[in-house]
Amino acid sequence: MFVCQWHLDIPFGKQAEAVRIMTAWGKEKFASSEFRLAKSARLLVGHIGPSPSHIVDEYVFDTVADFEAALQGMSAPQFRAHAEALMPFIIPGSQHWEVLRVVS
Questions:
Q1: Contact 34, 91 (CB under 8 A)
Q2: Fewer CB atoms inside 10 A, N or C side of the chain?
Q3: Nearest of 98, 35, 45 to residue 67 by alpha carbon
Q4: In angstroms, rounded to a whole number, what is the distance separating the alpha carbons of residues 62 and 93?
Q5: Which domains does the chain carry?
Q6: What is the pLDDT of residue 89?
Q7: Residue 104 and residue 97: Cα distance in Å, rounded?
Q8: For the whole model, what pTM was predicted?
Q9: What angle is formed at CA 79 by the lines to CA 78 and CA 80, rounded to 5 degrees?
Q10: Which of 45, 48, 41, 37 is nearest to 13 (CA)?
Q11: b/e string for 29-51 if b means 16 or more Cβ within 10 A?
Q12: Which residues contact 41 (CB under 8 A, 6 or more apart)?
């Protein structure tokens, strides 16, 4: 299994708006993309240590191939509005994916 995390930072004071957009986007991902292959998903925000401006969108997939298939689907038209709505909240250069393999 693989834990796939999309990390991004947002401007101070914009957490609620960014989380609202990401929650709606997540629902659409599970409804109309290969993200439905994910075994679980959750949205995390910094609390102690990481800044509250740090957001992690996390998915658990059986295989890296399932994760890659999910990512390929993000170019579909129904996701454009979500991406455009979130874009002003992402601090440039902060977004990146981390993929971890579960060993036990």
A1: no
A2: C
A3: 35
A4: 29
A5: 2-101 (3.30.70.100)
A6: 96
A7: 22
A8: 0.92
A9: 95
A10: 45
A11: beeebbbebbeeeeeebeeeeee
A12: 26, 30, 35, 57, 58, 59, 60
